[in-house]
Amino acid sequence: MIHSVRFKALLDTNVIYPVIIRDLMFWLAHYDLYTPKWSKHIFDEWESVMERNGVDKSRIAAQLQRASNAFPDALVCNYEGLISSLELPDQKDCHVLAAAIKANANVIVTFNLKDFPEEYLNTFGLSVKSPDDFLTDIIDLDPEKAIEAFKEMVLYKRNPPLDEYQVLAQLRKNLLKDTADYLHSML
Fold first, then answer.
1. Cα–Cα distances in Å, from 44 out to 16, 32, 41, 184?
2. Which of 100, 110, 113, 118 is deepest in the core (most CB within 10 A)?
3. Rounded to whole angstroms, how far apart are CA atoms 17 and 21?
4. Per residue in 125-156, is it b (16+ CB within 10 Å) or e — as a string?
């Protein structure tokens, strides 16, 4: 059960990169519905994905800096020593688990659920959730605050400007159907 900002979620790169998912994740964290965590490895992957998608270097730097400034306590440090002792189906994901362990996170939020076996994560007191499941849980924690965060997020959508229903459509396109449906039901 999610209780408060003491609830820490390690956000994998595939949750941070899609702009619409990142925006909603960050706005809900800004409204103190949970505490986001990430690592240098995750930011390096995020930077690499943006480069591959043709994002300008100055824009990349600005996005990374904005995230760091918005959540100065989100960066997990000194987790690297744990990486080699961990075993996951994809060894390249061990840095995510190591950062989650070091952060004393409650959950890893990722689209790659199969790469984080629940039984193995349980041995570290961790669980794994898809962004859609995680976000519906967070919204359920405090629906009024969540809808307030969503509406403020929409107000900041300027490039291009979007209304609430256009943002919901983008969430659905990015595999957040349950989240979009839940938010839509409260509008």
1. 12, 26, 5, 34
2. 100
3. 8
4. ebbbbbbbbbbbbbbebbeeebbebbeebbee
Cis amide bond preceding 160, omega within 30: yes
CB 129 within 8 A of CB 175: no
- Which CATH number describes the domain made up of 8-141? 3.40.50.1010
Question: Which tens digit of pLDDT belongs to each residue from 44-62?
Answer: 999 999 999 999 999 999 9
- Residue 124 confidence class, pLDDT cut points 50, 70, 90: very high
The residue to which tokens 């994901």 are assigned:
93
CB 171 within 8 A of CB 165: no
Q: Provide the token pair at 172.
A: 């659905």
Per residue in 167-177, pLDDT tens?
A: 999 999 999 99
The distance of Cα 98 from the centroid of its chain, to the nearest Å, equals: 16
Model's pTM, two decimal places?
A: 0.94
* Region label for 30, one of left (φ > 0), alpha (ψ between -120 and 50) or beta (otherwise): alpha
